[in-house]
Every structure is written in C-alpha cells, then in structure tokens.
Amino acid sequence: MKIAAVQRPFFSYPESYAPLNKKNSMSVPKFQGADIFCFKGNQKQNSSIIPSSNPTDLEVNIEEKTGIVPTETTVKKFKNGETYVNIAGDIRGKDVYLMPATGKNVNDNLMETYLKADAAKRAGADRVIAIMPNFDYARQEKRTEKGEPIAARLNMDLLKTSGVDEIITTDLHTPALEGFASNDMKVVHLESTQLMADYIKSKEIPDLVVVSPDLGGTKRADKLAKALECERAVVYKSRKAHNQATAEDLIGDVEGKNCVLIDDIIDTAGTIAEASKLLKKKGAKDIYVCAAHGLFNGDAMKKLSDAPIKEVVVTNSVPMKADSIDKIKQVDLSLAIAGAMKEISPDLRDNN
Q: Residue 245's pLDDT is what?
C-alpha cells in the first residue's frame, strides 16, 4: 500500500465516477500507485511561543532554531506590584511554550510563569510547556532544619496547578527533583555536561583532573571526567551558614595538573573561590570552572576575579550580568532545548 501526503485538501473520485459539475470540482493531483491520500495541513501553526517580558539571547536562539514567531503578549506591573498578563494571539489547540522569565526578582519571574500558564489554558491551549533552564528554588529540595518548607516541591505543585503540562529544564540541583512532579506532568531534564566537555576539549588542555567542589557533586564530576577521559578529585567542604562555605581538604591528587572545577550553580561564588584556593595550595597549575547556571549574586564577580581561576564557563540559562568579568564565558543551550521541543511537538521537526 502506498500513501501520498499533500499540502491542501482535494476530492478524489474513482475513474468510473464522473462529477456532475466538473467546473466546481477540484483538480485531483496525480500520484502514481497511491492508494491513500492524507492532508498534511499547515503544521507550523500547531506550536506557539509566549515570549518573556525580558527576552534574552537564549530565547532569540530558540526561536530561530524552531522557526516559531512569538505570540503577541503583554506583561506589566500594577502600582501595587501585581503582575498582569494578556496573550493576544490565537493559541487554541496548540502546544504553547513559555519562554523563561529572567527578571531580577525570582518570585516575580515565577508569578509571570504561573499567570501565563493559566492564561494559555483559559485561551484553549492544548498543552502548556514551561521552559525553565534554571529551575528556581531547586536548592530547597529538602528540610535541613525543623520548621523549613520544601520549596522545590511547592514550586512544582504551583506550576501544575497553574496549567503547566510539561517542563523543560537543565542541570537540576539534584535529579530527584523530577520525582516532585505529579504523574500527569512530565519533566524533560537536559544536561550541559557534553557542552562543557566539548568546550574544554577545544582548548586542548593537557594533564586534566576534574574536581568536584563538594561531596554532593561527585556524580556530576564523574560524568565530566568520563567525557574528558581524565581523573577526578573531590574537595571536602563545610558550610557554616547559607552562602558561607569553607574548603577544608582534598581527596585526590592535583599536583602539577590542570584542574576543571564542575558545579551546577555559581551563586555568590564562595564555594568555587574557596575550592580554587585549596587546589592552588595542593600544587595545581591552571584552574578552570564549569557551571550550568551562573547567577553571580552579591560580590561573586569580585571573588572570581580575585580567585586563582583562569576561566569560568557557564551556560546561557541565566543572562549575563552587566558587571561580568572577562574570564567568564558562555555556551549556548538553545540547540538542546530546541531539540527537546521538537521531540514534544513533531510539527517543529521540519523547521531549521
């Protein structure tokens, strides 16, 4: 049996049948040996992008790689601080992708995402997919003291309640976070390990050792060390308070070797700066840093500038800050995210 797919609908008659009014009948395309004809339609219209209120390079790159023109959307603030959202374009029956909100205030970003998801569902969207490269509140995934919430779980619940059907995220603080999603909400968890490995390989650095800045990141370091085909080491770290870390000892040998510190998030840069100083004391040569999410809050830039670090490589999950220093470089996540979108929405696969 042979199937022919066409871009526009038509009427097909057996040869024995002659239409009563040939003038009003549509011409029949001729396909040799075709038994079944199917109508492809305009598949590009089956997916929409709801842009963020602060578009980033990552967002622009995703749009280019998927071929989707953003839907007209309004986001503004009322005088009392409330967020207002209005989706003006037609999204009924479509897969709607919410671009990551990347304003300065994390809570405002999340509220913008919740409201867009709710608005999209009420406008008739078939599925709502939130693109959240840096999953906010991921580091609050467990209780370490009595009286604390599990904020990561709450965020996942609020996303589902607001109408999100699926999440595309990268380099979760811990993969166990996927278990916080309800059974009817999917999580696509992408990792930037290969991007980082490709970047480091391009620099042709000899005598490499991958180093985890704490015991919790050993699996992440194992993956990068495997991709780079080199040894690994681990820093033993203690934390006196939030955003206050001390590197106390090293498990492994780094003397006379070039090191690559790997972490998921650089926030205030205390952990990375302390680890790099310890590595220098242990005889390390050049020190590179790879991290998925570069938040760079507080005096992070000064700490990194003063630390014995040659280069810091992060993804563009978070836009680069205006006071960025020269040693910070970015690698692009858009190809991986666009690939995930094409797996979710098959109509995107023919675009770019």
A: 60
Contact, 116 vs 129, CB < 8 A? no
DSSP state of 103: -
Catalytic-residue membership of 116: no
Residue 55: helix, strand or coil by DSSP? coil
Q: Describe the chain by its helix, strand, coil percentages, rounded to 5.
A: 30, 25, 45
How distant, in Å, are the alpha carbons of 17, 221, 266, 292, 333 from that of 58?
A: 56, 25, 19, 14, 7
- Segment 71-108, tens digit of pLDDT: 999 999 999 999 999 999 999 999 999 999 988 899 99
Distance CA 332, CA 199 (A): 11
CA separation (Å) from 1 to 37, 96, 269? 11, 36, 63
Q: Which long-range contacts (CB under 8 A, 24 or more apart) does 40-44 make?
A: 40/5, 40/6, 40/7, 41/7, 43/347, 43/350, 44/68, 44/347, 44/348, 44/351
Range with the poorest average pLDDT among 41-45, 146-150, 258-262, 274-278: 41-45
Catalytic hit among 65, 94, 237, 342: 237
Whether 12 shows a pLDDT value over 60: the answer reads no
Q: Report the distance separating Cα 144 and Cα 139, nearest Å.
A: 11
User: What's this model's pTM, rounded to 2 decimal places?
Assistant: 0.83
User: What is d(CA 203, CA 187) in angstroms, rounded to the nearest whole number?
Assistant: 33
